[in-house]
Amino acid sequence: MFAQFALHERLLKAVAELKFIEPTPVQLTAIPPALEGRDLQVTAQTGSGKTAAFVLPLLNRLLGDGASQARSDVRSLILLPTRELAQQTLKEVERFSQFTFIKSGLITGGEDFKVQAALLRKCPDVLIATPGRLLEHLNAGHLKLNQVEVLVLDEADRMLDMGFAEDVKRLADECAQRQQTMLFSATNGGSGLREMVASVLREPLHLQINRVSELNEGTRQQVITADDNAHKERLVEWLLANETYQKAIIFTNTRAQADRLYGHLVASQHKVFILHGDKDHKERKQAIERMKQGGAKILVATDVAARGLDVEGLDLVINFDLPRSGDEYVHRIGRTGRAGAEGLAISLICHGDWNLMSSIERYLKQRFERRNIQGLKAHYQGPKKLKASGKAAGVKKKKTDKKDGKKTASKAPARRKPSADKAKSSGPSLVGNTDGTAPLKRRKPAAPAAE
Description:
This protein has 451 residues and is α/β, with parallel strands linked by helices. Helices cover 35% and strands 16% of the residues. Residues 235-384 form the Helicase C-terminal domain.
């Protein structure tokens, strides 16, 4: 029960109104130390309820300090990697603060700069932003962050992946007087995240809610081999026609591939939306809203949608292209199997994808279920030989003859060396003039003896 936490009565009222009854594991673990003011580094899977784990303690601090009084500075800052995730977080903040006087504001790319500047002049208590656009306003002199009390970095690993490391550090430095910093991520993030933790957090409490191998336990993970992209398109059509699902998302690695697949599915009479970086803010927002409202069951997207997309009933993820890392795979399949629900994640792999798939399996400490579709079985069924790691065993390189440059499977028999006397009398083995009047031609070597 949320009543076990030392939360302000107005927050408990909002929680009851929203019918939040049992806290999730990340909420049970993170809320108590967050209420004590500790700096936190929390690793928890996408869809685990971590937004409430930092929003409730943040609002509780602001209420305790008298949020109803007029303020002339931003008091808390939440940084996120994408506008979609920022919009979703704003809604959560507004829901939990509905019975308070706390005001919140949103600053992301794709919106009118002057309108945002006017919002910043009102100094919202809670500012939710993406790093790039917020830095633009900071450089333009539209806000000060020296009175920020709480800084939250949500999806910090994704911000690093998107190249926001320097922007985040700069904004954290601007919040020099902050009393608490909380960093949340879906993965351990590697050395880049460790560097950020060391530079931004102060004696943090590290909370590992889920080991990587435990992420998305409610999601079945399958692999289907394919011969080429045209084969993959036929497999996608079969899966969309025969799998039982409420809503599906299909991931590609490039915008061009997303456009091609979208056109193919539309031509096949599927009602589908597309989401990638070339789409403007209005188009992206419209696609997500229609998915949520049930206007379409299928979304084709690049990794721009791998974070911040929270659509109820999304229970099928298809990786048309394999993601480039284990972390990205975790974020993609995190779209399904949320909050304990069941889901299905299917990856389509060609010859060149096998080793990457094997690396992802080792990262997750799992082995994906192999599957074939009757009538669409690929000629490629994986490498003939595997290493102990699960990767394809390499073929031995053919040796190259240094003299003639030809590749030979075995070493050619050694030629006999001419005797010293014969070498002196015969001179160099050349055909043609030796005075420079005609190009010299080397005699063709005798063919190697048959073995």
